[in-house]
Amino acid sequence: MKIDRRSFLSFIIGGAAGTTLSPLPWKLMDDMSIWTQMWPWTPVPENGEVSYANSTCTLCPGGCGISVRLIDDRPVKIEGTEGHPVNDGGLCVMGLSGLQLLYGQSRVKGPMKRVGKRGEKNWEQISWDEAISMVAEKLDELRSDGESHTLSCISGSDQGTVPELFKRFLDAYGSVNFTRMPSIDDSYELVLKLMHGVEASAGFDVENTDFLLSFSSGILEGWGSPVRMFSANGSWKKSGGKVVQIDSRLSNTAAKADHWIPINPGNEVVLALGLAHVIIKDSLYNKEFITNYSYNFENWKRVVLNEYSPESVEKVTGINKTIIRALAKDFAGAKKPLAICGKGQGKNPGSTSEFMAVHALNALVGSINTDGGVWAVDNDKQNYIQWPDVKKDSVAESGAQRDRIDGAGTENYPYTRYLPNRFIENINSSNESLVKLLFVHGANPYYTLPDTHNVRKAFEKIPFIVSFSSYMDETALNADLILPNHAYLERYEDVPRTRSFNRPIIGLSKPIIEPQYNTRHSGDVIITKEKKMGGSIAAALSWENYEQCLQETLGDKWETLNENGFWVDETFKVPGWKNAFKTPTLKCDFSYNELFSLPHFCILGIKGDDPSYPLALIPYDSMRLANGFIGDPPFVIKTVEDTVLKGKDMFVDINPDTAKKYGLVEGSKVILKTPNGELKVRVHLFEGIFQNLVAAPRGLGHTGYDKYISGKGANVNELIGTFEDPASGHDAAWGIAAQLIKV
Amino acid sequence: MSQSEDKVSENSAEKKQPRQPGENEQGNGSSGPILLLFIVGLVISLIIGWVIFPKLLYSQKKQPIDFNHELHNQEVDEGCISCHFFREDGSFAGVPKNEQCAGCHEEVLGESTDEAILVEEYIAKDKEIPWLIYSKQPDCVFFSHAAHVKMAEMGCKTCHGPIGKSTSLKMYEENRISGYSRDIWGKNISGIKKNEWDRMKMNDCAACHKEAASAKASASKRSPQLFFDLLAMVFPDAGKPQKTEACFVCHK
Amino acid sequence: MGKHEKPKKYGMVINLDMCTGCGACMVACMAENNVPFKEDESDKLLSITWLRVYKLSNGKKFPDADICYLPRPCQHCGGKGDHGHSPCVSVCPATATDYSHETGIVSQIYTRCFGCRYCMAACPYHARYFNWWDPVWPKGMEKYLSPNVSPRMRGVVEKCSFCFHRYQLAMNKAYLEGRRELEEDEYQTACTQACPANAITFGDLSNPKHKVYELKKDPNAFRLLERLGTNPKVYYVSSREWVRRAGDNYLQHEETVKLN
Known about the structure:
The complex is a heterotrimer of chains A (743), B (252) and C (260). Chain B is mainly alpha-helical and 252 residues long. Chain B has helices spanning 2-16, 23-57, 69-75, 98-105, 113-123, 145-151, 157-160, 182-185, 202-213, 228-231, and strands spanning 58-61, 172-175.
């Protein structure tokens, strides 16, 4: 049989017919289409039983309650806890994207020792035993050399069991150099100490106020406890409460306020006293409070009346005197007025005179310890950490006698508690090596402290730095040893005192998931370390481990905390005026002593009167740019507008008129130069800013973390210096002289 | 086509050789192998399509433990939902977790080797059993068991077949291309189903829903489902004007 | 069966006076819906944000300048008379996007979409996003993905679904309890829930018991590009006239009109 072309074709046709009549092509097509719809590399999230676990967010001092949604044991989403006294279901961008931090690429996966130079990112993974021995050896060495005081600790907070453990360790070891990162808490604590004579934190009854006068405080930029402020802002809109924002830039707060009053930056204190002038002159103040509960009012009044007339205030602040008069009348006429201060998120303590002037304004209208006012929330009432005193050995005793490196609490700064800015300054200016060993916990000073240049220099002078960070932040990058803490969703920790909250509250951060990496709780590290050191140091802490320490310390609150994630003092009432003041006269002191009397009320200029710096640079805060000890996770950086960050370029806001003067258009590349340094940036033309002012966002220009945040934009702290408040020693810089150079 | 073919063949014949008598015979002679080859081609491709292809398409996977549904069904009070239960939030728990098995099987109760494997390999080691799920749907599918079982009061059998009466777990056949079980397409490679539960594709959902919707209207015919039936997948209650329900009902 | 339920019209009322522009809604949405991310998200045309908060400005000079934030989810247009002729649904050649008469929600089925992007061109709100790349979750990050929303692949369009999976799950619970109707708080979107300012209210626009029913009647309420007749289900409320005017394209001489 010969197979010719025709028969071959016939065979093929037969085959085609058969194939068509078989399921092969149809089934194959169907399967292929299913395959293309479900690429094997597209992840398929595992399903399971849904449950929620309550905890507390520790990404900022806001203390929000979080409910973590779990699928079986796997956390998939963080939500705000419904009914929580701080945030009632709401949550901010950071809190919502916490799982990206937990699982993210910037986690430190185990204890690491630096090899190569600092900051070179050359690390060697070591065991926990080795790591702790390394620190213990260093500690032994310093102690036997009689240099226990050269151990220092920079912490993000000084409250709660973990910071207390660090403090206690330093106590027993023989060092007084425990320092907290700066914030407006410093200034408010000081004001309450000076004017009320109490050790307390400032709480604001914002929910009940009907007239909020904000001196550049970014109530919608993250001031206080951000979510609480947002929700309060929403309730004012509903209830008809008024917000007046004094600000030199049209911030979100200013835009949402009922009135935005632009002010020449740095002159908030003058305006506050100008308003006081009108209130006193028109006799609009609260007579009952002033007559019965104030001291030194007459002296204060005299100066205010003499020096701060609306006319003279207008000259300094640039605010029309009729507006000043009207504002003063509105403020004093409101039922429950409240004035607050602390610029932006309140990262910088600011000047004491400003805080005292604003507090005095509240005092004038009687908004102190009343509904809708400022409350002094006594530290005693919220202190549940009752540990026995440390029994010090001779080394610890002699260490305790020494002055703090930052000078806080010394003659010059008698009531100030922490001065991280002076800490850096003094390390740099001293010929000796003041700090030989530094612990950094819950803080990222290398990035967040202003004047990065100086911080860098100070770090270089410290021979050994230990970071306890869970993430590869800038401080960890430049440390010698990293002892990574569990991430916040993996560990127990108490979170006392929500910033600006007006009742004693404790939050509990709970482990929602098993530790993902070879990390260890910093509390446990301290306890084991002390065990290793033996003697009086070990005796100072006899706990088995951190969890036992926490349970014992919290006592009967433990169960409530474990269940709800928070405990709030329901019995706490509006403090009122009676017995509220512990000053020598038992009254609210308008000018406590010579040091803080009025002649010292000065307007703090900014560094450099050099005419070659005709502009002023101010940093600004945004909810979408985290600038605390943790940088933006990917979701949050995604929300940053393209007029703030484009590619790797950061934008600074300038007024179109300023731009015209320099021949700049939207997006022009410029060099932003200050006496502290220079950065390449681009300009965004913004009508909501004073002429001759440049506003730069905080929170960009990271060098640590992962590629989703690192290398984007520039860190404005590189350009900003510190400016010491003569009264308190706090950093009061609100900006710096600057110039723009077109490129 | 045949005309032109003839033409071509005529032309070529002309070129090659002169016309000869008996060309009809020649044609007749060649039609034998042509037809034969057609049939051979047809048969081979049919064999490939119907027999070899299905064998190649599916890989055979054995379940980690051979589970006896019938035996367990006798032991429990509430039938299927004793183990395959609804959670409080309305979601369906599906295949039980170890925890449930451990309720009885903390220790070996009987003599079966499968039970021994369960206790020793999984329960003692606190490891979940990697069951292969015959009815597992693609990730884009949302199926509400509550709507069907609770609201429409359908029995498990309607979709899952009489699996509760089985004494042994059948082989899991995984489609090598799509990665899903053969039970989704149906045991029969043609896709033709004898029972309601033979197939679990979107068409099958659509067919049933359409039937339910037009149940009141007299003629409820189960003609082969056209693609556009899918679009006409109606909600049970959308009565008069047949408004289509959006795809989100069963997709996510 | 056979019982008739009233079709729902889920929608939102967003109070722009209360919105602070914090971005929590955007992130809540991304976290809820497995929205991918990439190294550089500063090109906003390529950045997938189902809900995007726009910054509006009144264009006036200092110090009369004013800004307002406007969160923009999918508007779930019902078209004229709510017949479901949404701009996107009308043009989709694949029936990958569809209008639900039961809930008033415009669905998007990723596996059905073949990426022609007609819908993106048709949508006047830029609410639709295209996956130019396969999403990549850095190692370990895939662990937080939610099983309720299926992750997308390269070449498909995605958009806000009013967290439809939450409706599905809420209905599951209702069915289990023998109900066919949901309470207002049983189905809320992730953005509504997360909004710290309580600016977003979500519910059935046609149900007088739901808060949105009254809120949408606010004299200061408006919808975006209302005159196009898309009949969106997202209402905005602003006490500032310039904001309401920014909601549509007006000629200079035209007065801001109120349609709804």
